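User: tokens in, sequence out, please.
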């Protein structure tokens, strides 16, 4: 058996994703996966809020959601998330999945009906936590 070769390149990571996509294509049509992207810019054209994810089948996977500090607590985040959920529902999604860290937005998501499904304790270090949350649309 040959030795393993260390390769931490982005190219290798993309090759791995491609190989998995090729295998998955034997079981489902991944071309049905659609991105969701929403953003808000200030008058100077600077990004103040961004939400990205993807829909596939019954699921909307919320990958990234960020608001500039001065935009928080003003309803921007709620409005943006509700808009993304509406898009997902229109695409036939029934559920949303996301993850958030202990110092991020867990209470915000809970106020909007998300429930913790699983907690990854001590992530990334002792005392931290990553919460995997779900909502039925």
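Assistant: Sequence out:
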């Amino acid at each position: 058996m040959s030795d393993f070769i260390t390769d931490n390149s982005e190219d290798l990571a993309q090759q791995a994703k491609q190989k998995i996509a090729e295998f998955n294509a034997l079981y489902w049509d991944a071309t049905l996966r659609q991105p969701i992207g929403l953003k808000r810019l200030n008058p100077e054209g600077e990004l103040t809020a961004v939400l990205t994810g993807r829909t596939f089948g019954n699921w909307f996977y919320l990958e990234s959601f960020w608001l500039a500090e001065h935009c928080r607590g003003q309803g921007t985040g709620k409005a943006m998330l509700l808009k993304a959920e509406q898009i997902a529902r229109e695409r036939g999604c029934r559920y949303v999945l996301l993850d958030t860290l202990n110092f991020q937005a867990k209470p915000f998501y809970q106020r909007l009906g998300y429930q913790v499904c699983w907690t990854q304790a001590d992530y990334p270090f002792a005392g931290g936590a990553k919460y995997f949350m779900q909502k039925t649309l």
